[in-house]
Design a protein that fits this description.
Elements: E1 8-13, H1 20-30, E2 37-42, E3 49-50, E4 56-57, E5 71-74, H2 88-94, E6 102-106, H3 110-115, E7 123-124, H4 131-137, E8 142-143, E9 149-151, E10 155-158, H5 163-176, H6 178-188, H7 215-222, H8 231-238, H9 242-253, H10 257-275, H11 280-287, H12 292-303, H13 307-319
Parallel strand pairs: 1-2, 1-5, 5-6, 6-10, 7-8
Antiparallel strand pairs: 3-4, 9-10
Helix pairs in contact: 1-5, 5-6, 7-8, 8-9, 10-11, 10-12, 10-13, 11-12
Keywords: Transcription, Transcription regulation
InterPro entries: Class_I_gatase-like (IPR029062), DJ-1/PfpI (IPR002818), Homeodomain-like_sf (IPR009057), HTH_AraC (IPR018060), INH-QAR (IPR052158)
Protein name: AraC family transcriptional regulator
């Protein structure tokens, strides 16, 4: 890390009924980023909170540190603590957050953000099991239950439990590039980027006995992204009919084969933009997009910037 690079402060808010696992995710992920982040944990009044396990949690900070945060992460709470509103002390604590600070919810804490109006008119997600309840309580929020996290700029929401890892790695990637995010993921022994969304974890009928997986075909495709792979190519490798393969792929990954291929090509293009001096057209060819224009279109649809803008941001960030 450069001597002039500012350390970003992440403040984690623990509410009554907090899940200990999710509470520890920000410290574990951001703490592995080579000193680029400082992580503090607080409660709304500085006093201990009861976890959803058989112990209470004592913290060193009260709500005043929320006003100093670059990023605030609200850890998830037990579903039986979810209500249509929030206590006055929680609302007062959230009001301390600076207007330019990022706010991240993990799992059920999306209900907290919705209750104070921070998700009004925004796209968001939460645990798939609570989809119906969330929609009844907050119909004005565009809930997407099929994704692992939603990045709406200043406000980010993530799905259940381990999706907190995904959104924190995403922030490291956005702040400092894929190289550091991949390093953090290796340190924490987690995948740097999970395929698909939470649709793959939703309860559904057990596949028939002996049903083949599409995992081997996904691995095969990742080695051939530069090729013009079709659904027929994928189904043929898996030795399934087109219809069976498409259905099984969607059940396992939560995306159609076509959307998954685009996602993987964009991810590889981002890595090449960060780590190489190849032209946009050359990168497009290496990841399987027919033209540089196609790469520009898909990258912009995915993250909202052009290849040149992305390269300027993350090659510079990685070199600092």
């Amino acid at each position: 890390m450069s001597e002039v690079e500012r350390v970003q402060r992440v403040v984690v808010l623990a509410l009554d009924g907090v899940y200990p696992f999710e509470l520890g995710i920000p410290s574990r992920i951001f703490g592995a980023a080579g000193g680029r982040y400082e992580v503090l944990t607080c409660t709304v009044d500085g006093r201990p909170v009861r976890s959803n396990a058989d112990f209470s949690i004592t913290v060193d900070h009260g709500p005043e540190v929320l006003a100093t945060a670059d990023t605030v992460v609200i850890a998830s709470i037990a579903p039986n603590r979810v209500t249509a509103g929030v206590p006055d002390e929680v609302r007062a604590a959230l009001a301390l957050i600076r207007p330019d600070a990022r706010i991240v919810s993990i799992c059920t804490s999306a209900f907290v953000l919705a209750a104070v109006g921070l998700l009004d008119g925004r796209r968001a997600t939460t645990h798939w099991h609570l989809t119906d309840l969330f929609r009844r309580m907050y119909p004005h929020v565009a809930l997407d239950p099929d994704v692992l996290f939603v990045d709406e700029g200043r406000i980010l929401t993530s799905a259940g439990a381990a999706a907190g890892i995904d959104v924190c790695l995403h922030l490291v990637r956005e702040d400092h590039g894929s190289e550091l995010a991949n390093f953090v993921a290796r340190c924490c022994v987690v995948p740097p980027f999970r395929d698909g969304g939470q649709a793959q974890y939703i309860e559904q009928p057990v596949p028939e006995q002996g049903a083949a997986s599409t995992a081997a075909t996904r691995a095969w495709a990742l080695e051939r992204l530069e090729e013009a792979l079709t659904l027929a190519d994928l189904a043929g490798h898996a030795r399934m009919s087109l219809r069976t393969f498409a259905r099984r792929f969607s059940d396992e990954v939560g995306l159609s084969p076509g959307r998954w291929l685009i996602q993987q090509r964009v991810a590889r293009a981002r890595r090449l933009l960060e780590a190489s001096d190849l032209s946009v057209d050359q990168i497009a060819g290496q990841v399987g997009f027919a033209t540089g224009a196609s790469l520009r279109q898909h990258l912009h649809a995915s993250i909202g910037v052009s290849p040149q803008a992305y390269r300027r941001t993350f090659q510079t960030a990685a070199a600092r």
